[in-house]
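hey so u asked for the seq, here:
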Amino acid sequence: MKFWSTIALALALLGCSPSTESIGETVKSLMQKKFSESDELKNYKLEVVKVDVIHESGNKYRGMAKVMLNGAPHDVGMSILSDGDKIMYEIPPENLGFLVQEAMKQALAPLRNLMSPPSSRASKEPVPEKVQNLIGDYSTLNEDCRGRPGDDPVGMKACDLRNEVVTELRSLGWCYGKPGQVESDKDWVQCSS
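ran it, structure tokens below
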């Protein structure tokens, strides 16, 4: 009898705690609201795609959010507390380093224009929507390709698809960086003639 009552108590306690999926959805919603409404963050137009959550112990959870910035995905780790009614999450500042890079890039943009030769300061044409979508696909596939072991079938498929996207971008006249450019400065640009 004691055995069955112990199992019933364990099942009852398990039923009281929220699922990792529901915690993930709640944290995703809270993050998106913060990113969209915060004066410091709303100009970056961040999009929280998903939040994966695993149970650590007691009311402690770990989460990994996929956040999009300018078509590129970024993984953001966090700790989560949930008492069944309320949920709190905390993101260590170093996990948002990509935002610091973007802020510096935006802050330095006017200086780059001043230091570049007049011929390169000509107004840029807007990037066509199809090209923007392909660049976003490239970023996602590149992340999946580079973030997995070399023999992983999912990673290999992502690499193949990424290469197809590169071929399509090149056929539309877009290249990754300019000849001789440092890798860290490269971005998708119209190919030189």
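The longest strand covers residues 47-57. The two ends are 83 Å apart (CA to CA).
lmk if thats what u needed
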